[in-house]
Amino acid sequence: MKLKHNLLLIASALFLLASANSHAGRQGVGFYYGVGGGATYPQSKALDVAATGEIMVGFEEDGWNFEIIGFSTMNGGTSTNNVDYSVRGNQFAFGYRTIERNNMYYKLGVGMSNMDFDFTSTSPTLLTSGTSYNLGIGWRMDREERMEVAYSYYSSDDLIDPVHMLTLRYLWGGNPYKGRSF
């Protein structure tokens, strides 16, 4: 055989070996979506805690997930009289969800985030981008419904202090992840 044929044969054998050992045969790709509510705390002394709402979609395979989250806050107060602020933004996160035991699981992830701080004064909107680190715990409510409590730590070079977000989410879709099934 020629070198091309040998390389093709070796590559095909490697792909077959990789697919036999891959995670793809365990859970399959799942889709989920949800809504959440919580609080955003910019760790700046000038900004108060603000109520947050979010909407999200996610794709998951065998515990690994990719989530797209959009969020917005109600007006929060500042240390300056008659000046309020609000935050809106999005997050693209990659994470992992542990195996469900007793209908409970843990999540951790990291993501790219954009947060825009809009002040009611004449100052322009502060546009920031940075990294979010996410931790969560979740409970299976029904076969295709679950609830999560998620904490996000947002760090940006555009801000002196980090921003903390705590959210309670309700999700629809997504299969239970029970681990390897042989």
What does this structure look like?
The protein is 10% helix and 59% strand. It is mainly beta. The longest helix is centred in the first third of the chain and has 19 residues. About 3% of the residues have low confidence.
Structural class: mainly beta
Total strands: the figure is 9
Strand order, sheet with most strands = 1-2-3-5-6-7-8-9
How many domains in all?
A: 1
Broad CATH class? Mainly Beta
User: What's the CATH topology label?
Assistant: Porin
Average pLDDT rating = 83
Quaternary structure annotation? single chain
Shape: globular
What percent of the residues sit in helical stretches (DSSP H or I)? Answer: 10-25%
Low-confidence stretches: 20-25
Q: Please work out how many helical segments DSSP would assign.
A: 1
Cα separation of the termini: 37 Å
Topology as a string of helices (H) and strands (E): HEEEEEEEEE
Largest sheet: 8 strands, antiparallel, barrel
State which percent range the strand residues make up. Answer: over 45%
